[in-house]
Design goal:
Mean pLDDT: 95
Structural class: alpha/beta
Number of domains: 3
CATH topology of the largest domain: Rossmann fold
CATH class of the largest domain: Alpha Beta
Helix content: 40-55%
Low-confidence stretches: none
Radius of gyration: 23 Å
Distance between the termini: 64 Å
Largest sheet: 8 strands, mixed
Number of strands: 11
Shape: globular
Length: about 350
């Protein structure tokens, strides 16, 4: 009997894995319809008809489709459901998960979800087995160029990408800044290499206004960066030259590149900081730093995302050590924080 139970459980789990994509697609649908915003704006549980009435540009909305969408979202604990005992209309309410799916609230995972489920990105995953067989990057096989060239030539995708990268900055900074406040107090200037549109360095300088902040990224990224007090935006290539500063900050950027490119970046970072007092502050995933923590599965999923979209990877402690030493940083320190990333301090001597 036990063997039959295990076989049945295995069968169920296979079915769940086969159709796991449907959850992500339904969640994207809910975000596009702004269902979480509609429910949260009412301050409490509302009926299906009330949700439908809040969906814009829908003169012929299919209420049956909406109900079926909500059934899965309730099953996945995105929303709550209540069936009144008096036979009244079913009520749908918010949860701690649905608050991350709000368009008009920060922090929000909406931009990240839309990027991850964008047809351009999703199409790349269909080339994964081909990449296993003969190498290469799935994104490039699917789209004819790498993700950076694609973003530079497609303003819509560029905005989607930049919005997604900045959408979780508030979450990370809420953990990083308290954990690293004493160390930041001794830094006079800081350059964020691959800083996107500048949200992370802005949060650091806002918290430590004595720091002269520099946001450094590709010209087409810097072109869309807003003005921030105390921040200079500089466009360029980290493979050529990096602005000088007391210290360098890198967040979720080295995982975009293979080891050879990372070493090249790190060597340029070393040139940009003072040899005796300079340092590099890396905030990235470290696989296996604590295999039992709640973020480990996410790190492994992100590693496969990097493999699909870029030449990069998420790295173990040993892989990080090797990379840092080859890049000219023989001394380093790993600091675990309550986030999927860790802080890695590295010094040129």
């Amino acid at each position: 009997m036990a063997e039959n139970d295990e076989s049945l459980q295995g069968l169920v789990e296979v079915w769940q894995q086969i159709y796991a994509f449907s959850t992500s697609m339904v969640l994207k649908c809910a975000v596009e319809l702004r269902i979480a915003d509609i429910i949260h704006s009412q301050g409490g549980p509302i009926t299906l008809k009330q949700i439908a009435s809040g969906v814009t540009d829908s003169p012929s909305l299919n209420i049956s489709h909406l109900e079926r969408i909500m059934r899965l979202l309730v099953l996945k604990n995105i929303f709550t459901v209540h069936h009144p005992s008096d036979g009244g209309e079913t009520l749908y309410g918010p949860t701690n998960l649905s608050r991350w799916m709000l368009w008009d609230s920060k922090p929000s995972f909406v931009p990240l979800l839309l990027l991850g489920n964008n047809p351009v990105n999703i199409g790349s995953w269909h080339y994964l087995s081909q990449c296993v067989k003969d190498g290469g990057v799935a994104f490039k096989k699917a789209n004819g160029c790498d993700v950076w060239d694609f973003a530079s030539s497609d303003s819509g995708y560029n905005k989607l990408f930049n919005d997604a990268m900045s959408s979780t900055v508030d979450i990370l900074m809420g953990v990083f800044l308290p954990a690293y406040k004493d160390e930041l107090s001794s830094i006079g200037s800081l350059v964020d290499v691959g800083g996107g549109t500048g949200e992370a360095i802005h949060e650091i300088v806002k918290s430590h206004p004595h720091i002269k902040g520099i946001n450094f990224d590709l010209p087409h990224v810097i072109a869309t960066a807003p003005a921030y007090e105390g921040i200079s935006h500089i466009g360029g290539s980290m493979f050529e030259d990096i602005p000088n500063a007391d210290a360098i900050f890198i967040k979720d950027m080295l995982h975009d590149w293979n080891d050879e490119k990372c070493v090249e970046i790190l060597k340029n970072c070393r040139k940009a900081i003072p040899e005796k007092i300079g340092k590099i502050i890396i905030v990235e995933n470290v696989i296996g730093i604590n295999e039992k923590d709640i973020f480990e599965e996410i790190r492994i999923m992100l590693d496969l995302t990097m493999m699909t979209l870029t030449t990069g990877k998420e790295r173990t402690i040993e892989e990080w050590k090797k990379l840092l030493e080859e890049g000219g940083f023989p001394r380093y320190n790993f600091i675990k924080i309550p986030a999927r990333q860790s802080i890695i301090e590295a010094y040129p001597i």
